[in-house]
Design goal:
The chain is of the alpha+beta class. The protein is about 40% helix and about 20% strand. The protein has a domain of about 140 residues: Beta-lactamase (3-Layer(aba) Sandwich). It has eleven helices and nine strands. Strand 8 and strand 9 form a beta hairpin. This is Serine hydrolase.
């Protein structure tokens, strides 16, 4: 398939799927292979949060305190210098729009014990496994490397004392031990979101439309296509799931997960967008 031809010269391997949101038809390459989610997991956290708000189980206006103990470093509250109180809803927005890892942890903490882990079964996603939010994954990495805590892990990573090979040997890079899914499961989940309760779907659409840290699949998309997405990455992986809405009413869910071996991010991300275009053309034949 043309998808393989796009990535092989780049030293990369893609796992991809596209699904028509109206009739569920789909095609892909390696679409049933397990892939790591990284920040794509935030889409599941957002869905469960928004559903619980709809059910009256979570007050979206409730203030949540963000302290130094919560901060993981990075964008949004994860990189705040001072403690803050932020409404639960706004934390969910930060999680989705700027991929705020601390916000993801705090929102996940509002969902209740087992809510995230049990979500794939409730949704019928048989090849999806959710272990936890970003902090849970980092804690697993620290244990794998025999490092005492996340503060020590941050120092070790900053110092370069851990090699890329050692990191890639930890659970965060292993689909059998971390948050994982398949491209086909992800397009099924996107179809569920888009065809789900109108109020919930509208808010998930709004959050994914405002993503500031992705856009990998849409770089070569026609200007008239409306794009909604959630990306994720680790050294050695570039991921994105998206919905493209065409002017003629077609709506496609697209998932592209790429395992990379070189420092050629720009080329890989352009290939991801080319793959998305190729899949839409193939589905329309």
């Amino acid at each position: 398939m043309i998808v393989d031809e796009l990535f092989a010269p780049l030293g990369a391997k893609a796992f991809a799927h596209i699904r028509d949101l109206a009739d569920g038809r789909g095609i892909g390459v390696g679409e049933e292979e397990p892939v790591i989610l990284v920040s794509v997991v935030k889409l599941f956290i957002a869905w469960e949060f928004r559903c619980q708000v709809e059910e009256g189980l979570i007050d979206p206006a409730a203030p949540v305190r963000v302290t130094a103990a919560d901060r993981l470093g990075g964008t949004g509250t994860a990189g705040f210098r001072h403690d803050a109180h932020i409404a639960a809803w706004d934390l969910a927005a930060l999680m989705m729009e700027v991929s705020d890892n601390t916000a993801a942890d705090l929102v996940a903490g509002l969902l209740g014990p087992g809510a995230l882990r049990g979500l794939p079964a409730r949704l019928g996603l048989k090849r999806t496994r959710l272990i936890g939010p970003p902090r849970a994954i980092l804690e697993d990495v620290a244990r794998d490397l025999d490092i005492a805590d996340l503060e020590a892990l941050a120092h070790v990573l900053a110092s370069g004392a851990v090699s890329t090979a050692e990191l890639r040997g930890t659970s965060a890079w292993d689909p059998m031990r971390t948050n994982a899914s398949t491209p086909a499961d992800m397009t099924a989940f996107l179809r569920l979101i888009w065809n789900g309760p109108a109020a919930v779907a509208a808010d998930l659409r709004a959050w994914t439309a405002r993503q500031l840290t992705g856009g990998r699949l849409s770089r070569l998309a026609p200007s008239e296509v409306r794009v909604f997405g959630r990306s994720g990455s680790l050294p050695g992986w570039r991921n994105e799931v998206a919905v493209w809405e065409w002017p003629d009413g077609r709506r496609h869910a697209i998932a592209v997960f790429v395992q990379v071996t070189r420092d050629n991010t720009r080329e890989v991300e352009l290939a991801m967008s080319r793959a998305a275009l190729a899949l839409t053309e193939r589905l329309g034949q």
